[in-house]
Amino acid sequence: IPLSTENSRYDLDFDHRSAYMGGRWSPSSQLQFEASLYSETLDNIDATLGGRWSLRETLPRAGMVYRAGDNQTWRLAHFETLLPSAAARLDPSTVAGIRITRNIQAGALVRETDIQWELELPQALVKLNLFDADKTLTSSQLLGGVQVESTASGEISGTEMSYEQLIGRQTGLSLSLLG
Asked: How far is CA 53 from its chain centroid?
């Protein structure tokens, strides 16, 4: 099980620390599971409004990949992640091959569940992804000499379809529709 730590410190007012442990298990050539657990800390400041806040989270990620045949794959993923204001991350940016970059905002705690179907064609890949994601954004500001913390949340659910094709040896086409 790989263990990786990362510490990003860009100035005296921002600090993000992340440590994670994860692994993969393949009971057959068609099926793969992956899981990881993250411990993340974010200390931030809003220099304009004078706010300071800290977030400390233990966050799970889990996924499954099922090869349904020579050219079809199903992917299922659930993840929670804390996005620092400066995203210089070294840890994996996918869970079961599904990217973790939707519905993100600096300093947000993001929770997302995806199911994705893929069809491999000669020189092309078709994807259909159903997702449900929510985020919670915590911030702080100094109002009248008093530290005031605020929380905002949002949710997005939908479908993403994409078509990617190689055209020649050095050119590709990528089309995506989000709804």
From this structure: 22
17 in Cβ contact with 40 (< 8 Å)? yes
Nearest to 135 by CA among 76, 72, 83: 83
Give CA–CA dist 12/8, Å, rounded.
11
DSSP 1: -
Taking only the tens of pLDDT, the chain with its 179 residues reads: 555 554 444 444 567 778 889 999 999 999 999 999 999 887 776 656 666 677 788 999 999 999 999 999 999 999 998 776 555 566 677 899 998 876 566 678 889 999 999 999 999 999 999 999 998 887 777 677 777 777 888 898 999 999 999 998 889 999 999 88
Enter the DSSP assignment of 66: E
Q: Give the helix/strand (H/E) hosting 126.
A: strand 124-143
Residue 94 burial class via C-beta count within 10 angstroms: exposed 0-12, middle 13-18, buried 19 and up = middle
* CA 15 and chain centroid, separation: 19
